[in-house]
Amino acid sequence: MTLSRDQVRHVALLARLGLEPGEEDYYAEQLSRILEHIERLQQVDTDAIPPTAQVVEVLPVMREDVPGPCLSQEAALANAPESEGGFFVVRAIQEPDPG
Amino acid sequence: MPEAGEWEAVIGMEVHAHLKTASKMFCGCGTDYLGKPPNSNVCPVCLGLPGTLPVINRRAVELCLKSALALNCEIQLATKFDRKNYYYPDLPKGYQISQYDLPMSRAGWLEVDGKRVGITRVHLEEDTGRLVHAGDRLESADRSYVDLNRSGMPLMEVVSEPDLRSAAEARDFAMALRGILRAVGAGEADMEKGQLRAEANVSIRPRGSEELGVKTELKNINSFRALFNAVEYEIKRQARELEAGRKVVQETRGWSEPERRTFSQRSKEVAQDYRYFPEPDLPPLAFAPDWIADLKGSLPELPAARRERLVSERGLSEYQARLLAGDLEVADYLEELVRLGLPAQPAANWMIGEMLPRDEPLVVAAAETAELLRRLEAGAINRDQARAVLDQLYETGKPVVELAAGLEQISDAGALAGVIDSVLAANPTAVADFKAGKEAAIGPLVGKVMQATGGSANPKLARDLLLARLKR
Amino acid sequence: MTDLYALTIGELAPMLRDREISAVELLDAHLQRIEAVDPKVKAYLRLTPDLARAQAADADRRFQAGEAGPLTGIPVAIKDVLCVEGVETTAGSRILAGFKPPYEATAIARLRAAGCVFLGMTNCDEFAMGSSTENSGFYTTHNPWSLDKVPGGSSGGSAAAVAAGEAVFGLGTDTGGSIRQPAALCGVVGMKPTYGRVSRYGLIAFASSLDQIGPFARSVADAALVLSAVAGADPNDSTCFERPLDLSQLEAGVKGMRLGVPKEYFEVAGMEAGVRESVEQALAALQGAGAELVDVTLPHTDYGLAAYYIIAPAEASSNLARFDGVKYGLRAPRTESLLDTYLHTRREGFGAEVRRRIMLGTYALSSGYYDAYYLKAQKVRTLIKRDFDAAFERCDAVVSATSPTVAFEIGAKTGDPLAMYLNDVLTLGGNLAGLPGVSLPCAPAGGLPVGLQVLAPQFREDVALRVARAYEQAGVRAEVASVA
Ligand SMILES: [Mg+2]
Ligand SMILES: [Zn+2]
Known about the structure:
The structure holds 3 protein chains of 3 kinds. Chain B is of the alpha+beta class. Chain B has 15 helices and 16 strands.
C-alpha cells in the first residue's frame, strides 16, 4: 500500500495540516513505509472476530441531571489567542457550517 | 420532459430539537443559556479544553427514548455514541459526539395530515456553540465571534423517510413533531428560539415516477412559515432548472427570509468526510427492557389520540380538534372548560379566536375563563364586553366577578328606543342609503348605537330594532 | 548520611513523621539537586518553586497538626500532559505554549489532597507520541546514566527526574509503553495500571482507549503507594470505576506462583543479547524465589505494532482536532481566512511526529479505508486480548523484557519512524489488552539499565507488584544516577 501525493494532500486538508511545498513527497514516502508494515494485518483472518473498542468492561453509567457551576466569562476566555466583548474571535468564515 | 406542474416533490426531514433538561448533555452547565452574556454558561468540558471528558446525562437519554417511543420507534437496547469529526469554530472539540451506526431508535412513524410518515431514526447528540458575524452577510464580515454558551446542549435528531410530498406536509410534519415533543415533556420546541431546527431534503421527479431526483438540503429555517416558504420556493426552483434543461446540483442551500429565496452554500472545499468512530470516552449503553417498558407506560395521551377523542367525545370539528390537540396544555385547558360545565363548541371557538393568538394564552385560570364564557353564553354581556374583560384578565389577573361588575348588556327594547331614535336622526345619509337598497348601511348604524351605549347594548337586539324602524 | 534526594518514600515518610526532617528541607534538597543536575539532564520543562514552597510549608503544618498521610511532604515530578490548575501545561507542544488550565486532573488533585509537593512539569514527547523524548516541542531530555543517550519516552522527563534524584517519585502516562519503556531505560520502577483504574480526567489525551496514568518510583513499594493514592472511581471519567485493589500482600513472595514466559517476546526484532541475558537471569532469580516458570504463547504478537499504529493515531487524529487556534494555545499570525488559520496554526504548532500520526490516523478513519484499517485493527485487538486471556489461564503473570534494547544514542532513530516504533513492541500489547504492567530494573547490560516487565490480568495490579517486589528483594534495586 503506497500513498500518492494526491492522497497526502487530501488527508492533510481533512486534518487541517498545512503542507509546505515538497512535503507531499516526504509524507507519501514516510507514510507508505509505515503502511507497508501495517499491511500485515490483512494476513489475519478476522471474519468471525468482533471489534474491540473498549477493552475493559465499562458499565453503562450515566450521571443525574443536576446543574453545577460554570466558569466565569473571564476564566473561559483567559487562554484565548483573541477575544472581544466576551466572544472568541476568529477570521471571517467563508465556508458554510459543515455539520 | 414533463409539463410544468407535472412534477412531484419528494421531501424528507431532519429535525434537531433541544431537550428540556436542567444540565447540558455531557457536563453540568445549566441549559437556560438564552440571554446570558457570551461564554458565561460554559465549563472546561463544553469548552473542549484538553483532558476533559464527557459524562452522559441520564435525563437526556430518557427524554430521547420517550420521544422515540411516542414516534412509534423500535428502541435499540444496545446503543453507543460516536464521534463525528469536522472543523468549524463553533465546534470546540473538532468533533461532535453523536450517534452513527447504532442509534437509540429506528423505524417509527408520525401521522401527518392523516398519513403515516416514516421515522428513520431518533438519536441523541450535543449541540454546537453559536457564531455571530460582524457584518450581516457572511462574506462581507472579516471577523466572526464565537459564543459557546449553547455548546453541549442536549440535542435530539429526528430523521424522517422521504415520505412528504408538499411544502404544507413538510410544515405540518414539523408542527406535529413539536406537538409530540411538548406532549411527552421532551422540550418546548420553539422554532423562533432555536429549540427546534428543521432541515428539509427536497427533490422533484415526474409525477408517477418511482425514481428519486437529485436532492438539495435546505438550512437556516427559523419558523414554520419559513419552512413552508423555503420548500415551496425550492420545488419551483428545481422545476425551473429541469424545465430549462439544466440539472439540479446536490448541495446545501440556505433560506434567506428577507430575500425569500434559497441560495447555494456550496464551498470551494473538499467533500465532507466525517470519519465517524466509536467515542472511546463513553461507555456503550445497554438499556434494561423494564426501563423501556416503564417509559412506554408513562407516555401521556398523544396529540393524534387526543384529536380523535375531541372529535368523537366532544363533538368538535376536525379543524378545531387539530388546532387544539397539537399542544397538550391547550387541549387540557379546553377539557377543563368542558368539565366546568361549558359546551365544547363555543369554548373551542373562544379559545381559537380569542386566546391562542396571544403570547401566553393559558396564563388565565380556566375557572375565570369559564366564568366569563358563562356570562357571554347567558347573554349577560356581549362579545365586545367579554373581549374587553379578557384583555383586563390578561393584564390585571383580577377575577371576572370584579372586572365584569356593572357590565350589563342592555337587552331591553324599551331601554334602547330613545337611543335608536337619536341615532337615526343624526345619520340621515346612512338612513337614505339603506332605504335606497344598500343593506350594508345597517352596520355603521348598529356601531353608532353601540357607541352611544358605551358598548353595553345587545348588538343583535340593536340591529333588529333598527331594521324594524327602517322598514316601517 | 545519604543525601535526602536519594531516599524513597518508604524511607522519607517516617523521617518526616518523626520530624527528623521538615518538608521544606526535603524540598530544598530537591531544588538544589535540580539546580545541580538538570542543566545536563533537562528533565523539567518548567519548575513551580512558589507552589512547591507553599505546599511544603502546608505539609509541615499538617505534620504538626497530626493531619499528615504517607505522601505528605513528598516532592513529585509531573509529566506535562497532566493538567495542574493555574500552572502552564503544554503536553510538550508549542501549540499549547502558555496554556494554563482552569481545572485540575483528578490524579493531580488526589496528590494535592494527599499533601504532595509539586516540583514542576517534566519533558515528554509532544502529546506523548514517541519513545525517546526527542519529539518534545522544546528540547530533548538526557539519560541520567549516560547523557548522550535517550531516557526513553514518552514520559522520559519524569523517568529521568526520578533516576537522577530530581524527584522522589513522578507521574507519567502510558499509551503504548510510555511509562514502562523510559522506566526501563532509566533504571527505575514504572507502572501502567489497568485501563480504567486511574481517572483520565485532566490527562491531555493521546489515544483515549489506551491512555493510563501511572507512577515512577525508586522502589516497588513506593509505586504501590502512589498507585493507591491516585486510583479509584471518578464521576468525571465514565471509563473509570471502583474495583478492588488490595496491596496488602506485596511482601508475600512468589512461592507457588506461575510466571508465563511468552516465547514470542524473546524473539522480537532488534532484541539485544545483553537485554535478553539480563532478563533470563532475572527469571532464574524469580525461579529461585519459588516461582514456577511456564511457557505461554502470544501468537498475535507480530500484529500488535500494526494494530496499535492504526488505533492510537486514529484516536489521536480526533483528540488533537481541538487544537485549532480558536480557544487556547497558539494561533498562527497574519492569516487571511479561517481555513488559513487552521492550516498554519496546526502546521506551526505541531512537530513532525505528531503531524505524521495525525495524517496516519485521519487516513485510517477516512471514507473507504475505515474497514480495511480501523475496523481491522480493532478486530486484531480482540485477538491480542484473547491471547492474553488464554495465557492467563496458564499463569498468574507474564514476564519479559520491557524494551528490546537499552538506551540508545540521541538522534540514532529520529530519521526512521518505524525503527522508533519498534521500541514499544513488548509494551503495547499491555495497552491493547488493557493490562496492568510494571517495569523494574534488572541487571544492567553494558553499564546501562535493563527493564524487566511483569504483566498481570486486568485489575490484578496486586499480582504484578507482588512479583516485582519479590524480584526487587532477590535482585537489583533502583538507584540514583550520579549524573557525571
Ligand atoms: Mg445531527
Ligand atoms: Zn459545560
